[in-house]
Each structure stands twice: as structure tokens, then as C-alpha cells.
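C-alpha cells in:
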């Protein structure tokens, strides 16, 4: 039986496999740092295969900063951590399809690489802005732990959560770029081929973020740089310009697969269509009949009903050839004005619009999507106080979800979730459109100042605020009673933690004889069977929101995950009778503890039982 690794996906190995698929001849073997044989790449051969595209010396276009190589390595290095379920903080655990994950998002994104690879339709993030202050996401390549612990929390004038900068010489662009770069690399792997990512940002790092996104997602996959009008009134005390906007960068995973969602038609837009000539085809609006692109066939005089003759404007021609014009004229699709003396125009009928809805524009006005104060009031009205400043308004997030063109089973990911605005936006979207969109939120458990109103109200971390907001938003949107009648309203809470396995599981050679009693089990004593189950799901690449059922067979608890996705039994000295019962149900995957069987002969027997009763089952131990 194969032993599970119990660590996150190794993206270095994944990249080697991708290169192997393209150029199998460059794959070779070599010793690693620990003297073990592993697959690697012969770059000399790879260079020869790509010799026509390799630049030797000279200048090349690139965007870099101090720490970029370390940040790239951080994205690809596997970790030995896990996600532990927190049933007491969850809501409607059994039916819940949504996830709230507490922990550093860099580690969480690594753990989700298998479970949600190519599964996320939309990502929205509102990362900390680099406004001259350091931020809470202090990765190992940024600064020391001592420097992290010395920082004290402050807020900007717009309520952005910041940490005081110990230095006074600039905005530390390199630190910020190193923070966001690996997270975007990992997030791209999670997007579906028709997926899209939205990133809120201000002027301080907009330029750098655009260059990073061009590198990570591909310049050809840039969709738009949306401008959000976040303020409804100017600040008269501004030193130079009162800044009233922020940006939302929008990139597709694959621009050829992505289809933008169109906006519902408004009464204002429809009011532009009228019917002054009582046309039986209904309301219409006039459209310019001339175009810039010149064609001699479309350059001709037109005699108006009034008798006046008109030519195309200088440097332009008509959009129709003379024959096509006469066809449209015969079909009453040309308008000459009420008096028959206006320059001709084309009648565009509301009933004949080709698209379902309106094309979105790059400017998002606050009258349509809300402003920053609206976002703050939304949190305050739910929680009973202004405990979280600077959240994005729900209307803005719902607009982005419309542009993302979400389907009924789409998943939305927000790994800088803050006060959990994204969760509320998804729920309102589901409620309004009768969809079943799911969300995954990730938030680092940033501590709250003990002197703040939020702390006095009982919130100890940002995660406490986010979880409470989701619960209160559920009550507001669905009401108390409907929670138990509607699926996919609740959410499962998970907390990032160290591996379920003791260090001896990874490095048994470092333990001496007097520590054998410590190693009687390779699993940490404080871990539950549910912890072990979800640790296995992460490695096996199964989504974390399927149903869990358990039953007792001869005193041994057996867990069934999903329909037949996985069966697990973590008891000691499991008898053959129980093994046969599990195998008879033919699950796709089965996992036991390594210590469930005392001898190698018993393990061989278990393997043979499954070969006989369920040969398609994948069998592993921890």
C-alpha cells in the first residue's frame, strides 16, 4: 500500500512533468541534496531544442525587483501543513458547500492546489495597499520575525488595514511585489479555462501590479482596468488632487475561452428607444449612417424626401452601398427626421438587439456600484457598529460577478477576504438569481487592537468579524427559518495548522533510540479522525465540501466521503471482517492508518482483499 506524503503539491515536480510532456528527451536523473535519485531537466539539451528562440546576452525586456527569485521559489516550495475543520464555528456543516479558511493565504493556496485545480470560475481579491506602511503578510523572504513582531497596527484615512512602517524612506515596492507575486502564481492554477480574476488596487502599486499580472496571466489575457468611483464628494483638505477613484484589474485565464457577462438593460437605456413614426417593429433609435473607413462604392449622393441632396461628411462615406441603402429604404429602416429634411440615419430596433444585455463600461460609477462609505455602512448595519473600515460595497462585488459570467455551479475565491463582503455578495446573487454559486474565503487571523471598539464587542481577530458577518448576512438575506430549508447557505470553517504527522514521519533518521516511545504513532496526539480525513482529502485532491457519513462496523468507525469518493478507517488493529465490509462497497479510494495493521503480512492481505472485491479502489495509508 502506498504511503501518503501529507504535504502540499510540489510545483517544481509539476513543472518538470509539463516539460516532460513537451520534451521527453530532456528528462534525466540526478542526486538531490539528500543523496536520493530524482527526475530533473538537462538544460543543455533543452537549450539545444530551443536554440532558435534563446537570446544569448544582450538586452531583454523584463520586470524585476530585489527578492523576486525568492518569491518565485516560495510559490513552488511544498509545505507540511494541513487544514483542520472547526465544526463549532461552522454553520449548517452537513449541507454546507461554502468554505471559510483561517490562515496565511500563501500556505492555504498551496494546500488547495490539488483540490481546486482548474475549478475556480472567479477570483476577487482586495490586497493591502502599499501606502507607505508595511503590511501583515510578512513572508520569509521579506523580513525577520523580530521585525514582524515589532509592528503596530494603524489605518489609513480610508480605513485600509495597515501596519506601521519602521522605516521612513519609501513605500517598499519590492516587499509588496514579493508578497503578491507568489500568491498570484498559485491562484492562476486554480482558475477554470474560462475563469477571471479581479484585483482591487490604488495608484501606489497599480503600475507594478499590471506588470506582474502580465507576467503571471499573460499580457494577451488582460481584459480591462476598471475605474471605480469610490468617493461621492471631494476632500477639500487634499494637498493637491482629491483622489476619488481606485482600480480593479481584470485578467482572464484564457482570453479565447472567457465570455464577458453583460449588464441588465436599464430603464434609462431603454428610454433612448422611441417610436415617432409608429413603426410596427416597436421602439428604435437613430444611428449614424456614415463611417470613417472610406469606400468608393459607398460614396454617393442621397436625395432627402424634402428634395435636398446630401453627401457623406468630408473624409467619410456611407456605411451601406447604394443597393443596400435602397433595400433598407424600402424596408422603412432609414430615418430622415420628422420633416424629411435631416441627414439620413439607420433605425436600430430595441427588439432586434443581438446581445442579451448591455456591454459593460470601464468606469464604475458609485451611483451604479456604491462607494466606500456604503461598504462601511453595510458592515456596520449587520454587526451593530463600525468594527471594520474600508470594505468594498456589495453592489461593486455583484457587478464584478456579473462580468465574470458565473454559472449555477461556479466557485468564487477571495483570499484577502477581510470582513467577508464577498460571501455576502455571493449569497445576495444566489438569492436574487436563484443560482447556486459557492464561495471560498481565506483570511489571516490578524489580531485586533485590544483598545478598539471591535475588541470590546468581543472580536479578537479579523476572522471573528468575517465569520460573524456571514452568519448575520445569512439571517438578513434568508431569514431564520429558511436556513434549514435551503441548501448551500451554510459554510464550513477550517483553520490552517501544522501537519497532522509528527516530525518522525518525515525525518525518522533524526530520532534516537530513547525517543522510540514518542514514535509509537506517527500522528500527533491532539488530532481527531476528522482532522486526518481532511488531511487525506487535501492530498488526494478532493473538494472539501462534500457530504460526510460515518457508521460503526464491529466497533470501528468508517467514514464515507461524498457518494463513493473515499472511505476511511483510522482504528488500530482493524480485523479482516471490517476490511472486507469496506471493500465490498467498492469506494474509489480507501485510506487507513499505517498502524492499523501490525505486520507486513496483514498489509499484503488487505491489498489482496481489495484486488478481489474492489480492484478499481485506490488504496493508501498514513
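Residues out:
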Amino acid at each position: 500500500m502506498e504511503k501518503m506524503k501529507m504535504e502540499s503539491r510540489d510545483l517544481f515536480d509539476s513543472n518538470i512533468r509539463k516539460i516532460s510532456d513537451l520534451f521527453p528527451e530532456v528528462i534525466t536523473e540526478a542526486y538531490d541534496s539528500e543523496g536520493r535519485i530524482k527526475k530533473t531537466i538537462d538544460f543543455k539539451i533543452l537549450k539545444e531544442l530551443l536554440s532558435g528562440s534563446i537570446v544569448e546576452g544582450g538586452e531583454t525586456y523584463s520586470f524585476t525587483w530585489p527578492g523576486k527569485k525568492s518569491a518565485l521559489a516560495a510559490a513552488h516550495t511544498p509545505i507540511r501543513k494541513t487544514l483542520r475543520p472547526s465544526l463549532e464555528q461552522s454553520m449548517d456543516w452537513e449541507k454546507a458547500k461554502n468554505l471559510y479558511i483561517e490562515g496565511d493565504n500563501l500556505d492555504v493556496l498551496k494546500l488547495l492546489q490539488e483540490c481546486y485545480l482548474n475549478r475556480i470560475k472567479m477570483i476577487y481579491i482586495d490586497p493591502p495597499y502599499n501606502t507607505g506602511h508595511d503590511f501583515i503578510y510578512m513572508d520569509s523572504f521579506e523580513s525577520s520575525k523580530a521585525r514582524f513582531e515589532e509592528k503596530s497596527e494603524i489605518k489609513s484615512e480610508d480605513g485600509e488595514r495597515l501596519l506601521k512602517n519602521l522605516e521612513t524612506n519609501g513605500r517598499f515596492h519590492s516587499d509588496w511585489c514579493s508578497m503578491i507575486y507568489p500568491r498570484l502564481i498559485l491562484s492562476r492554477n486554480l482558475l477554470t479555462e474560462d475563469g477571471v480574476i479581479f484585483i482591487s488596487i490604488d495608484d501606489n502599486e497599480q503600475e507594478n501590479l499590471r506588470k506582474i499580472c502580465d507576467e503571471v496571466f499573460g499580457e494577451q489575457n488582460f481584459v480591462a482596468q476598471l475605474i471605480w468611483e469610490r468617493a461621492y464628494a471631494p476632500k477639500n483638505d487634499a494637498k493637491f488632487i482629491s483622489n476619488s477613484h481606485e482600480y480593479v484589474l481584470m485578467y482572464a485565464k484564457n482570453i479565447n475561452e472567457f465570455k464577458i457577462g453583460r449588464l441588465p438593460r436599464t430603464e434609462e437605456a431603454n428610454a433612448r428607444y422611441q417610436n415617432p413614426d409608429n413603426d410596427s417593429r416597436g421602439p428604435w433609435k437613430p444611428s449614424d449612417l456614415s463611417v470613417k473607413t472610406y469606400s468608393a462604392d459607398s460614396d454617393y449622393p442621397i436625395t432627402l424626401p424634402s428634395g435636398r441632396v446630401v453627401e457623406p461628411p468630408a473624409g467619410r462615406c456611407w456605411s451601406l452601398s447604394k443597393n443596400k441603402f435602397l433595400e433598407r429604404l424600402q424596408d422603412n429602416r432609414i430615418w430622415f427626421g420628422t420633416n424629411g429634411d435631416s441627414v439620413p440615419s439607420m433605425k436600430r430596433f430595441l427588439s432586434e438587439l443581438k446581445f442579451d444585455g448591455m456591454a459593460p463600461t470601464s468606469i464604475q460609477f458609485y451611483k451604479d456600484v456604491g462607494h466606500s462609505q456604503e461598504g462601511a455602512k453595510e458592515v456596520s448595519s449587520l454587526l451593530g457598529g463600525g468594527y471594520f473600515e474600508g470594505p468594498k460595497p456589495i453592489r461593486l462585488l455583484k457587478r464584478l460577478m456579473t462580468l465574470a459570467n458565473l454559472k449555477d455551479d461556479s466557485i468564487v475565491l477571495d483570499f484577502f477576504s477581510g470582513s467577508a463582503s464577498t460571501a455576502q455578495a455571493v449569497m445576495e446573487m444566489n438569492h436574487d438569481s436563484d443560482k447556486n454559486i459557492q464561495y471560498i474565503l481565506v483570511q489571516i487571523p490578524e489580531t485586533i487592537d485590544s483598545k478598539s471598539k471591535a475588541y470590546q464587542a468581543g472580536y479578537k481577530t479579523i476572522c471573528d468579524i468575517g465569520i460573524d458577518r456571514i452568519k448575520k448576512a445569512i439571517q438578513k438575506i434568508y431569514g431564520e427559518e429558511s436556513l434549514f430549508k435551503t441548501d448551500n447557505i451554510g459554510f464550513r470553517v477550517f483553520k490552517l495548522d501544522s501537519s497532522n504527522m509528527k516530525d518522525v514521519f518525515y525525518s525518522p533518521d533524526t530520532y534516537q533510540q530513547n525517543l522510540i516511545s514518542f514514535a509509537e504513532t506517527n500522528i500527533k496526539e491532539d488530532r481527531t479522525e476528522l482532522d486526518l480525513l481532511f488531511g487525506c482529502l487535501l492530498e488526494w485532491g478532493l473538494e472539501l465540501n462534500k457530504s460526510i457519513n460515518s457508521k460503526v462496523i464491529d466497533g470501528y468507525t468508517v467514514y464515507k466521503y461524498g457518494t463513493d469518493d473515499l472511505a476511511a478507517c483510522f482504528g488500530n488493529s482493524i480485523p479482516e471482517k471490517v476490511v472486507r465490509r469496506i471493500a465490498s462497497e467498492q469506494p474509489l479510494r480507501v485510506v487507513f492508518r499505517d498502524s492499523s495493521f501490525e505486520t507486513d503480512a496483514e498489509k499484503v492481505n488487505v491489498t489482496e482483499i481489495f484486488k478481489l472485491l474492489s480492484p478499481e479502489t485506490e488504496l493508501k495509508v498514513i
